[in-house]
Amino acid sequence: MGYTKFCARQSVQKSSLRVSSAVQPQILSTAEFRAAVDALAPQAAVFDCDGTLWSGDAGTGFMRWSIESGLLEREAIDWLDERYRGYLRGDVSEIDICGEMVQVYHGLRENEVRAAAAEFFRTRIEKNIFPEMLALVRNLQERGSEIWAVSSTCGWVVEEGMRRFQVPTERILAARVAVVDGLLTRTLLDVPTDEAKVTSLAHVGIARPDAVFGNSIHDAAMLAIAHRAFPIDPTPALLQRCAQEGWPVYYPALPT
Question: pTM of the prediction?
Answer without folding.
Answer: 0.91
